[in-house]
Amino acid sequence: MAKKLSTSENDSVGGILRAPAETLYAEEIEALITDDKFEKPPGWRMSARAVQTYICGGKAGKLEIKPKYVGHTRLVQIAISTLVTDRSLLLIGEPGTAKSWLSEHLAAAINGDSTKVVQGTAGTTEEQIRYTWNYAMLIAKGPSHEALIKSPIFRAMETGTVARFEELTRCASEVQDAMISLLSEKRLSVPELLTEVPARKGFAVIATANTRDRGVNDMSAALKRRFNIVVLPTPGSLEVEVDIVRRRISELAVSLELRAEVPTEEAVEKVVTIFRELRMGQTLDGKNKIKTPSGVLSTAEAISVLANGMALAGSFGTGEVTAHDLAAGLQGSIVKDEAKDRDVWQEYLTNVLKKRGAEWRPLFNACTEHNS
Question: Around 121, how many Cα atoms within 13 Å sit in the side-chain half-sphere?
C-alpha cells in the first residue's frame, strides 16, 4: 500500500533517479482513497471515479490533484472501465503520446503498485512472461515452489493486481502468443509442479504498442481480440501540447534538481511550434508545406529538448535557458539521419524560421550555427 512519506523518507527518495508514481504521488493517492465515496471494484484501492480524478485532475477534499494525463477525458474513462471488466487494455499511439505514462499511473492508482512490468524487446522470452527457475535450487532439490521465479504477470495473477507490458509489438510473435491463453483462460499452468494458478479478481494487463513499430512484429488477430484497444492521439492543438510540456519540465526540474530556471512560456511555445510543424509537414497556418525529417519529434522529445536546455544552462551557463541551449537540443532531436535530416532542417530554418521576425532571430541564428 502506498503511504505518505515522512521527511526522512522523502530525503531517501531524493536519491532515487526515478521513483514510481505511487511514491511520487502518495499524498494524492491517499487523499483520494480517504475522500472516496463510491464503490471500489474487487482488488482496487479506489473507485473508478477516483482513478479518473487522479489521472485527469480535480479535488480530493481540500487537496488539488494534478492532472497526470492531458487529453481526451473520454479515452481515460474507456481505459478505466476496461480494467473494471475481465478484459485487458492495449494503449496504442505514436511515440511520445504518454502510453507508458498513462499505464504507470493507472496501475499506481488502482493497486498502489506500478512496478509489475515486462519490458518488451527483441530479446524478451516466454519465461519472462510466465516463470523461470532458480537453477541451483532446481538441481539441488528438484522443482519446488521455492525454486520458482515468478514473472510480473504471474505475481499479478496470484494477487489480483495490474501488470504492465511495455512495447508488446517489440516481442517476437511466439512470445506474444504466450499471452493469448493467459488473457483468455485467466490461468497459468506450472506443469513441473502439477498445478495451475488461477487469476484472482482484479487481475488485468495494461499493454502498450507503438504505431511506428508496425511491421516489426505485428500482433495476431487472436491476441488483439483479447484486448480492448484505446488509441492515444498526439495533442490536438498547440495550446494543449504547450501545457503538457510545461507541466512535465516543471516536474523534471524538481525531480532531477536541475540548477536552472524553467524555460519561459515563449521558449516552450517556440520549441513545440517547431516540432509540430516538422511533424505535420506544414506551418501551423497551413500556408507552407515543409519536408519532414526521419525522427519522430514527439511531445516527449520536446520535453527532452527543454530539460536538456535547462541542464546546459545550469551546468555551463547562468541558469537562464538561452537560444543556444535550446538549439543544441533541437539539433540532436531533429538531425537523426545526417545525410537527409541536416538538409531538411536547414531548409526549414531558411524558409520558415528566418522569416518570422525579430523575436525568432536569436533562435534562428543559434540553430543555423549548430547546423553549419
Answer: 6
Output the pLDDT for position 5.
45
Q: Which residues contact 344 (CB under 8 A, 6 or more apart)?
A: 278, 291, 292, 293, 334
Spatial contact of 53 and 9, defined as CB atoms under 8 Å apart? no
DSSP label at residue 15: T
Which cell is 252 given? 523534471
Per-domain boundaries in the chain: 7-127+162-177+201-232, 238-371
pTM assigned to the model: 0.87
Instruction: Give CA–CA dist 307/297, Å, rounded.
Output: 15
User: What spatial distance separates the first Cα and last Cα of the chain, rounded to whole Å?
Assistant: 54
At 224-282, the pLDDT tens digits run 999 999 999 988 899 999 999 998 999 888 888 888 999 999 999 999 999 999 999 99
Q: Convert 15-29 to b/e letters by CB count within 10 Å (16 or more is b).
A: eeeebbbbbbbbebb
CB environment 165-186: b (16+ within 10 A), e (fewer): bbbbbbbbeebbebbeebbeeb
CATH 3.40.50 for the 7-127+162-177+201-232 domain, yes or no: yes
Segment holding 266, helix H or strand E = helix 265-280
Give the whole-number percent of the chain exceeding pLDDT 70. Answer: 95
Q: What is the helix (H) or strand (E) element at residue 22, kind and residue range?
A: helix 21-24
CB neighbour list of residue 223: distance below 8 Å, 6 or more residues apart: 176, 177, 179, 180, 183
Please give the Cα distance from 264 to 247 (Å, whole number): 12
Residue 164 pairs in a beta bridge with 117, 206
Q: Where are the alpha helices (DSSP H) in 85-113?
A: 99-111
CA distance 326 to 281: 21
Distance CA(92)–CA(165), nearest Å, equals 12
Give tens-digit pLDDT for 70-126: 888 999 999 999 999 989 999 999 888 899 999 999 999 999 999 999 999 989 999
